[in-house]
Write a structure and sequence with these properties.
By secondary structure, the chain is of the alpha+beta class. It is 34% helix and 33% strand. The protein is elongated, with a radius of gyration of 20 Å.
């Protein structure tokens, strides 16, 4: 008698990193004008995405914010963020740009790997 197919086996849990960018209308406002998000496979990629985004804004920032942004992206400020993510802690960065408030946040979350689950499903 043929054996019943086994359900797909999940791989060991791993951690991915949920990244969000929220733009608020003003510094004092709770109204969001734009929200974007993505998932990254490791802390370095998550922080790299923020660094690229912050650097793209650098020319539009006031001098104080530009200096702070460039210090965070280029002089090791983001290294602490990567370390926090490796420890399983959330992290973020925020700044003021042209009257808006922009926040980036990253948090780890568990995921299960289902690589090749469908191809294993029918094997005996």
């Amino acid at each position: 008698m043929p054996q019943a197919p086994q359900p797909p086996q999940l791989g060991p849990p791993r951690t991915a990193f949920w990244c969000e960018r929220v733009v608020y209308e003003t510094l004092d406002s709770d109204s969001r004008t734009h929200t974007s998000h993505c998932s990254m496979p490791n802390p370095a990629e998550a922080i790299r995405a923020i660094r690229v985004d912050v650097r793209a804004l650098a020319d539009t920032l006031a001098p104080v914010e530009r200096d702070r942004a460039l210090r965070w992206t280029g002089c090791g400020g983001s290294v602490g963020a990567v370390a926090a993510l490796y420890r399983g802690e959330p992290c973020g960065f925020s700044l003021s740009s042209e009257g808006r408030w922009i926040e980036w946040a990253v948090r780890p979350y568990p995921v299960s790997d289902v690589n090749n689950a469908s191809s294993r499903h029918g094997r005996q």
